[in-house]
Specification:
8 helices; single chain; globular; alpha/beta; Rossmann fold
Length: about 220
């Protein structure tokens, strides 16, 4: 009697299919880089609290593919990207692997997680990536950081208004702030608070539930003031 248990997709196949759904064609070298990334996240997570994602499929779906969904909202001219509270590197590092020309700054207050990020950057041979072990509030006071970025993300740090408060000082006027939320629409009160911080809504995308979101939305807001 055949088992009725669903066969788990291979991580590479899941990544390639998910990326194709997002309109991305990953090269063989990019797929290999993601495989290295997956291996290292799994290995480090076995000995430290690196990420809440468990198992290869969840890491690929929620770590890699949810991150890559942000690419649809990143204009071609965007170069300098800031990822606050990067943790295991989501969404910053997947975006860098898919678009190597990005100049990426990963900000992580935890010494252990920052060590992982530096290790991962070395393992991937990624250039144009800076890892900063520091609290974002402290870093924002640096003269060279204020208004220095085209785009910022703070996926796992706090609710959207708090994310907005953290990233705003780093964005140039007209810079973009990407917010990843659940399947529902952004509450009007939340949007009002973001507008009050000096942001305006630009666009949003809602990835398919097939990517494991389920239906996680990505919102693009512009720093208006």
């Amino acid at each position: 009697m055949k088992s009725s248990r669903r066969r788990q997709p291979e991580p590479d196949d899941l990544l390639i299919a998910g990326a194709r759904f997002l309109g991305l064609h990953l090269t063989a070298s990019q797929v290999a880089a993601f495989a290295t990334y997956l291996e290292e996240v799994t290995r480090w997570s076995a000995r430290m609290n690196l990420t809440g994602l468990r198992g290869p499929e969840e890491i690929v779906r929620t770590g890699f593919l949810d991150s890559l969904a942000c690419l649809r909202l990143i204009p071609v001219g965007v170069t300098r990207v800031l990822d606050i509270g990067s943790g295991a590197g989501f969404p910053g590092l997947p975006l860098k692997l898919a678009r190597p020309n990005l100049l990426l700054t990963l900000v992580e207050a935890s010494r252990k997680k920052a060590s992982f990020l530096r290790h991962m950057v070395r393992q991937l041979g990624a250039t144009g990536v800076r890892v900063v072990q520091r609290r974002a509030e402290e870093m924002a006071a640096d003269r060279g950081e204020a208004g220095a970025y085209d785009l910022a993300l703070a996926r796992a740090v706090a609710p959207p208004p708090e994310q907005g408060r953290l990233v705003r000082p780093f964005l140039r006027p007209g810079g973009l702030f990407l917010v990843q939320i659940g399947p529902g629409s952004l509450a009007s009160e939340t949007l009002e608070r973001l507008v009050g911080l000096g942001f305006e809504m630009v666009q949003e995308v809602a990835p398919s539930v097939s990517l494991g979101g389920p239906g996680r939305r990505v919102l693009a807001l512009r720093r208006a003031t």
